[in-house]
Specification:
Number of strands: 9
CATH topology of the largest domain: 2-enoyl-CoA Hydratase, Chain A, domain 1
Distance between the termini: 29 Å
CATH class of the largest domain: Alpha Beta
CATH superfamily of the largest domain: 2-enoyl-CoA Hydratase, Chain A, domain 1
Shape: globular
Helix content: 40-55%
Number of domains: 2
Strand order of the largest sheet: 1-2-3-4-6-9
Order of helices and strands: EEHEHHEEHEEHHEHEHHHH
Strand content: 15-25%
Structural class: alpha/beta
CATH architecture of the largest domain: Alpha-Beta Complex
Largest sheet: 6 strands, mixed
């Protein structure tokens, strides 16, 4: 089905693996298009309750494949962003399902943006992130200018953006850039444990909370209070909410079905 990535659905979990390990999973046009298609399929498939995004080989994603850029020097970077990267980031942020980044290695440039667009990132302690754009005289793109200051604050965001220095997974946890770092031999276990939680969680409530949190930085208190009330009515009408209340009253563990 795909040539540049692996796509596997197991139970309620969709695993998407960027699969260009010979170039550290650098983005070319085909991989961007295929990743967008895979994410849309994961959203559309009602059996999928959580998405895991990772890379094959030693890297998560090293950003744009510069050989492709050099092969087409007249291409417009802004067009690549408008037609390629931006729809990809929006799809991840608007998907009403959690997206877990499994950071197995370096995430640089647009690859760093891709990691930051995940709802949660669990990394190998050998992994690292770098806003490497400055090294080739470019600026942040693919959402990094949005995500970076919200995660680490404006002063540190400026430092990371303008120096492009590599941030180790351990430091990334300390500064709030990612959620968790574990020894490399424990990465799969840590990711799958978190995925298992979301596979059995109230998916619609999580999707609504994702929308609320996305709106938070652009809303004043009054607007967000109204939106909370609106979303709460929707959540309360779901089968999972009814099951959760019944389980609470019956003093048992709820059996959420994502409905």
């Amino acid at each position: 089905m795909f040539e540049t990535l692996l796509f596997e659905i197991t139970d309620g979990r969709a695993l998407i693996t960027l699969n260009r390990p010979d170039v550290y999973n650098a983005f070319n046009d085909q991989m961007r298009k295929e990743l967008l298609a895979a994410l849309k399929e994961a959203e559309k498939n009602t059996a999928v309750r959580v998405v895991i995004l990772t890379g094959a080989g030693k890297a998560f994603c090293s950003g744009q494949d510069l050989k492709e850029v050099l092969a087409n020097p007249d291409r417009s970077i802004s067009e690549s962003l408008h037609k390629g990267y931006n729809p990809l980031i929006k799809q991840m942020r608007n998907m009403p399902k959690p997206v877990i980044g499994r950071l197995n290695g370096i995430a640089a440039g647009a690859g760093c943006s891709l990691a930051l667009a995940c709802d949660m990132v669990i990394a190998s302690e050998e992994a690292a992130l770098s806003e490497i754009f400055i090294n080739i005289g470019l600026v942040l793109d693919s959402g990094s200018a949005y995500f970076l200051p919200r995660l680490v604050g404006s002063a540190l965001a400026f430092e990371l953006a303008t120096t492009g220095r590599k941030v180790s997974a351990k430091e990334a946890v300390t500064i709030g850039l990612i959620n968790k770092a574990v020894p490399s031999d424990q990465l799969d276990t840590a990711v799958m444990e978190m995925a298992a939680y979301y596979e059995h969680a109230p998916t619609k409530a999580i999707g609504l909370m994702k929308k609320m949190l996305n709106k938070s930085f652009q809303s004043d208190l009054d607007t967000l209070l109204e939106y909370e009330a609106y979303c709460q009515d929707i959540a309360a009408s779901t089968s999972d909410s009814k099951e959760g209340i019944a389980a609470f009253l019956q003093k048992r563990k709820p059996q959420f079905k994502g409905e």
